[in-house]
Amino acid sequence: MRMIPFSQLPDSMRTDAVKPYYDILSKKSKSLFLKRVMDIIASLLLIVILILPMLVISIAIKFTSKGPVIYKQVRVTTYGKHFKIWKFRTMVVDADKKGELTCSDDDRITKVGKFLRKFRLDELPQIFHVLSGKMSIVGTRPEVPRYVDAYTPEMMATLLMPAGVTSLASIMFKDEAELLEKTTDVDKEYIEVILPQKMEYNLKYIYRFGFRRDLYLIFKTVLEVLK
Questions:
Q1: How far is CA 147 from CA 45, 90, 150, 157, 177, in A?
Q2: pTM for this one?
Q3: Residue 126: what pLDDT?
Q4: C-alpha span between 217 and 215 (Å, rounded)
Q5: Which runs of consecutive H residues, i.e. helices, occur in the chain?
Q6: Rounded to whole angstroms, what are the CA distances from 44 to 48, 128, 131, 225?
Q7: pLDDT per residue over 181-192, tens digit each?
Q8: What's the CA gap between 79 and 101, in Å, rounded?
C-alpha cells in the first residue's frame, strides 16, 4: 500500500486533524508494504483452506431461509471510497429496512445466522475483499456512509488505511449487540456513545501502527473467537 500525496486527499480528509496521522503513516512505508504482502498471502491461503467450509455454510443458508446466500451492503473504505461488503446472510430478507444495527435478541436473525454471528463466520467472504485490496485483515471496521457522515474531522483519519476484517475496537466491542439491546434509540446510542469509543481505539491503532502490531491483533482475534 502506498500513501497518496496529502494534497490529493479528499477535501474532508485534507485537514489539520488528519495531518498528524498522515505524517505517521507516511514514515512507515515498510510496514505498509509488509501489511499488503501479508494480506495477499493470508487471503490466498484462507481461500484455499476455507472454500469447502464456506460451501457448507452457503448450502445451510440456502436451505434454511429464503433469500440470497451473500448479503451486500455499501460501506466506506480507504480515502472515503464506497464498496459493497460481502457477508454471509444472517438475517431475513429486507431486514435492514427496520434498521442497520442489530441487537443480540433481534428476531430478524435466522437460526443459522445466530451460529455464524457467534463465531464471526459471517465475515468469511470478506477475505476476497482483502485479496482485492478493498480491505485489510487488520483495520477499522467499515461503516455505512451515514455513520461516516457523523465522523468528527479527526475520525476521518481512519480512512487513510483500508477498512479491516478485525481490529482492537471490534475485539473490545465484541458484545456491541448486547449493549445496543439496552437502549431505546439504537442509532443515537451508536453514534453518540459507542462509535466515539471505538474510534479512540482505531485512532490509537494508527499511532501505534506496525507490522508486528497487526500480527498481535490477528492472534488476539483468533483467541477471542475461540473463547
A1: 33, 21, 5, 15, 17
A2: 0.90
A3: 97
A4: 5
A5: 19-26, 29-64, 111-118, 127-132, 145-148, 168-172, 176-181, 186-189, 195-207, 211-226
A6: 6, 9, 7, 21
A7: 777 788 888 999
A8: 24
Residues ≥6 apart with Cβ < 8 Å to 174 = 224
Judge contact between 121 and 88, C-beta under 8 A. yes
State how far the Cα of 79 lies from the Cα of 56, in Å rounded to an integer.
Answer: 35
The burial of 225, by beta-carbon neighbours within 10 Å (0-12 exposed, 13-18 middle, 19 or more buried), is given as middle
CA proximity to 128, closest of 160, 165, 77: 165
Hunting for cell 481461500 — which residue is that? 47
pLDDT interval class at 151 (50, 70, 90): very high
DSSP 9: S
Q: Quick one: DSSP state of residue 108?
A: T
Q: Tens digit of pLDDT for each residue in 127-149?
A: 999 999 999 999 999 999 999 99
pLDDT in tens, 28-86: 999 999 999 999 999 999 999 999 999 999 999 999 999 999 999 999 999 999 999 99
Q: Are 105 and 36 in contact (CB under 8 A)?
A: no
CB 92 within 8 A of CB 55: no
Strands 163-166 and 135-138: parallel
CB 148 within 8 A of CB 76: yes
